[in-house]
Each structure stands twice: as structure tokens, then as C-alpha cells.
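Here's what a typical entry looks like (N-acetyltransferase domain-containing protein):
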Amino acid sequence: MAAQRQDWDTAESRCAERRELAGAAASAAVAVEEGVTVRFRPIGRTDVDAADRWTFGGYAPGWLWSRELTRARRRPRRVEAAVYAELPDHTHVLCGLILGRISNRHVVASIHLLSRAPAPNPLQGRFAKIAVRYLEFCAAAFDCTTASLQRPIPELVDFYKSLGYSRVVEKKGKIERLERDLGAVLSAMRKGDQP
């Protein structure tokens, strides 16, 4: 049992390092592409407590971040970030949370849950695009060839398609996920180019 725990701790540490590298690379790309300074951090208790209280026009998401984070952290290979924007006075404000997974064979990196903080939010109108960029850098860090957005909000499907998520997988007449082949993107990243 102790050996299993040690193996899990080693895997968790290795995967956390990959997420940290992906976050740093995504931060640099977002600074150039969007002109904002963001930080991708592991989701903490205060982030979860804040997110569990977020509502949008009286509507609350159909999940609790506290429960979903506990469930997701059973797997070392995951996509996880609390996204903070740096304000002009150099303070940081929580703008949203991202949670997903890396497939067992490192083929697909996916976002399963995504939520932005309600207004005022310095990343309002840009948060989904920034989250997708983080996903793509996580995919690169874990050597995945496909990025996937699970059960996207119908109103955002066309937006995600404009970002290259054009492969639609349907289940029972509903969009189950949108996928993007990252072969060309990963090739550009390895050469040091911005995709």
C-alpha cells in the first residue's frame, strides 16, 4: 500500500510540474495574443469557495466545484487551473476555473468544466479563449494530439469552432464534445513558433 501511495505521489508531482510548465507557456502566449497578464495556478480552497457562490443572472452552474475538484484529483493526469488576471496595481483577481483530464494513453486533453467569475471580471469576453489556450498548452505538455471541449454550451459552439474545434462528436442528437487535432499546433510549438 505504501508503494502505491509513493507511486501516486510521484505521478502527481510529475503531472503538477507539467501543468505548471503549460501554465507558464500559456501565460506568455496570452500576454502576446490578448495583451493581458494572467496566471494559471492550481485550484485552491479559496478559489473553490468563491466559485461555488458564482451565479449568472440568478442561474448557478449545475455542479459544485468542491465536489468536482475532489473527484478530479483522484487522477494525477488532469487539466486544472485557477485563472488569475493581474490588474494595473499588480493585484491578482480570480477570473475563472478550468478542470479536465488527460486520457490514459495521452491522446486527448480535455476540459470538462469551465466557469468564469461573474462581472466585474477583467477577462469577461475572453475567458473561454484563454482557457482553450491553456488546454492546448496542457495537451503539448502531456504529448496529446487532440484537444477536446466536453459538452460545450450551445451558444458557444460557433465560437469554439472558430478557434479550430471543428470536429463534432454527437450523442443522442446533442453535441457531446468538440475536438481539435493538434498535430500542426504541436509541431509549431516544438519549433518555438506561436500556433
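Residues 119 and 187 are 37 Å apart (CA to CA).

More examples are in the samples folder.
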